[in-house]
UniProtKB/TrEMBL annotation:
InterPro entries: Bact_OuterMem_StrucFunc, OmpA-like, OmpA-like_sf. The keyword Membrane applies. CDD domains: OmpA_C-like (cd07185). This is OmpA-like domain-containing protein. The lineage of its organism: Bacteria, Pseudomonadati, Thermodesulfobacteriota, Desulfuromonadia, Desulfuromonadales. PANTHER family: LIPOPROTEIN YIAD-RELATED, STATOR ELEMENT OF FLAGELLAR MOTOR COMPLEX. Gene3D superfamilies: OmpA-like domain. It comes from Syntrophotalea acetylenivorans.
């Protein structure tokens, strides 16, 4: 500290100066005390300044660390910015590609929709055409049905013929006794007369195929007829064939529109347990079906 040295210097100054007055001594003492006080304040201020300097140095160091962190953060942000820019560029490229793809898909979808609408219009027109044709066929079938019913009225009343129309098919059902003798396939005169009237109507129906079906009951062929008809298959087929031959040769119906089926006893319409049922099963069916169109 400087204060002891200062007091010593003052004392030496008094001794060297020789005799001094009390007032002068007191003044010098006061000045020395004042200087000591000032020195003490300066030392205190100096100490405070040192502390402030240390605090400022610490704050400077702290700010340096914070600045370093900020710089590091800025570097990270810059890197993030670069990555974000790269991602944005990639996403823009993907979006552009997706937009082009979506545009192509929408164009293709539009073409598909246009195609479907055109197909719908075509199908609607075809459906309307088919409906008109179907209505015409139904009207024609009704006319054919009415003509057959009118011409076959007496046979229908006697139960020898039934006529039905179902699902686009018109069927003329003729029981055996009106066409054939028992166990025979040759047409009887009465049957020929019936077929003449039926044939006159059928030959006018040019847009239908005529399928003649032969049916029998389940009674086996008798031994005396075995040489002619081995089974009911042969009998039913022979009867249907003779009806077809008559329609072709005597009514001029083209053979291309005629077909023969022999079902034997395998498609009964009544029970074979009774005589009445067996009589119903022994029959010829003339079926009008829509003509098959050649592709």
């Amino acid at each position: 500290m400087l204060r002891p040295h200062l007091a010593l210097l003052l004392a030496l100054a008094v001794l060297l100066s020789g005799c001094v007055s009390k007032a002068e001594y007191q003044r010098k003492s006061d000045e020395a005390a004042h200087l000591a006080t000032a020195q003490s304040e300066l030392e205190r201020d100096y100490s405070q300044l040192l502390k402030q300097q240390q605090k400022l140095a610490q704050r400077y160091d702290q700010r340096g660390l914070e600045l370093e962190e900020v710089n590091n953060a800025n570097i990270g942000l810059r890197q993030d910015q670069l990555r974000a820019a790269t991602d944005i560029e990639r996403l823009e490229k993907v979006l552009s590609e997706r937009s082009a793809s979506a545009g192509a898909a929408m164009s293709e979808m539009r073409q598909t929709i246009d195609g479907l609408e055109e197909t719908k219009r075509t199908l609607t027109a075809q459906l309307e055409k088919e409906q008109l044709a179907r209505q015409a066929r139904i009207a024609e079938m009704k006319t054919t049905y009415d003509q057959l019913v009118d011409k076959m009225e007496s046979e229908i009343e006697r139960g020898e013929i039934t006529i039905s129309k179902l699902q686009g098919k018109l069927t003329v059902n003729l029981v055996e006794k009106i066409l054939f003798d028992s166990g025979q396939a040759d047409l009887k005169n009465a049957g020929i007369q019936v077929l003449h009237r039926v044939g006159d109507i059928l030959k006018e129906v040019t847009d239908k195929e005529i399928r003649v079906e032969g049916h029998t009951d389940n009674i086996p062929i008798s031994p005396r007829l075995k040489k002619t008809f081995a089974s009911n298959w042969e009998l039913s087929t022979a009867r249907a064939t003779n009806v077809v031959r008559f329609l072709q040769q005597h009514k001029g119906i083209p053979g291309a529109r005629l077909s023969v089926c022999g079902y034997g006893p395998y498609q009964p319409i009544a029970s074979n347990e009774t005589a009445t049922g067996r009589a119903q099963n022994r029959r010829i069916q003339i079926v009008l079906v829509p003509a098959q169109t050649t592709p």
